Automatic annotation (TrEMBL):
Transmembrane segments: none annotated. Residues 22-193 form the EngB-type G domain. The gene is engB. Belongs to the TRAFAC class TrmE-Era-EngA-EngB-Septin-like GTPase superfamily. EngB GTPase family. HAMAP family: GTPase_EngB (MF_00321). Necessary for normal cell division and for the maintenance of normal septation. It holds the Pfam family MMR_HSR1. One of its GO terms (cellular component) is cytosol. GO terms for molecular function: GTP binding; metal ion binding. This is Probable GTP-binding protein EngB. Its cofactor is Mg(2+). GO terms for biological process: division septum assembly.
Length: 193
């Protein structure tokens, strides 16, 4: 996918602030620090349009990135980060749930899982919850540059099994460091937009 134009189009914490356009949207979900913002940057070939951090809890709002006037990627706060006050986590939870369940032009959710580890209980809850709402899910296993290539298939199998992956959901190995998986991810996302 050739990227010709990107903008941080909107920042929202409530529905009134969502973009008024009807562009299809793809949301990024996953635990804090898994690499959601880095995924966006790699997909759009920008070093740091989406703010990233070694500290979990960086993304705190719904951030809509408009790409080629064709699609919005929506960066979402991560889950499973205990250091954020419970009241704030509850607020984020409500904001995310409302967006994921009510947004009409949301076409699919990219669920990011750290390829190095077994999916966490929160990862499984999120996947089951998305299935419950009949949301198409694209599973992206991040940070594959951190594991030896000879072990990739094993890690992929563990993620598939632990999540109970549906046949129709794709699982893509990805690295924001090397760009591995970028073309595949675009090809899959394009099916939904
Ligand atoms: P929150 O906004 O806190 O929910 O985190 P996030 O999921 O947006 O993670 P972010 O993109 O900020 O990345 C977290 C850390 O992981 C940063 O230090 C990134 O540089 C690093 N990282 C992300 N993706 C990769 C990857 O594919 N490979 C490697 N080696 N590091 C990565
Ligand atoms: Mg982030």
């Amino acid at each position: 996918m050739k990227i010709t134009k990107v903008d941080l189009a909107h920042i929202a914490v409530k529905p009134e602030q969502y973009p008024k356009t009807f562009l299809p949207e793809i949301a990024l979900a996953g635990r804090s620090n898994v690499g959601k913002s880095s995924f966006i940057n790699k997909m759009i070939n920008r070093k740091s349009l989406a703010r990233t951090s070694g500290q979990p809890g960086k993304t705190q709002t719904l951030n809509f990135y408009e790409i080629n006037e064709k699609v919005h990627f929506v960066d979402v706060p991560g889950y499973g980060f205990a250091k954020v006050a419970k009241s704030v986590r509850d607020q984020w939870g409500k904001m995310i749930e409302q967006f994921l369940t009510e947004r009409e032009q949301l076409k699919a959710v990219v669920l990011l899982i750290d390829s190095r580890h077994k999916p966490s209980a929160d990862d499984k809850l999120m996947y089951d919850w998305l299935i419950h709402f009949e949301m198409p899910v694209i599973i992206v296993a991040t940070k594959c540059d951190k594991i030896a290539k000879s072990k990739w298939q094993k890690h992929v199998n563990v993620i598939k099994e632990e999540l109970g992956k549906r046949e129709e959901d794709e699982l893509i190995l990805f690295s924001s460091e090397t760009g591995y998986g970028r073309e595949t991810a675009w090809r899959v996302i394009q099916r939904y937009i």
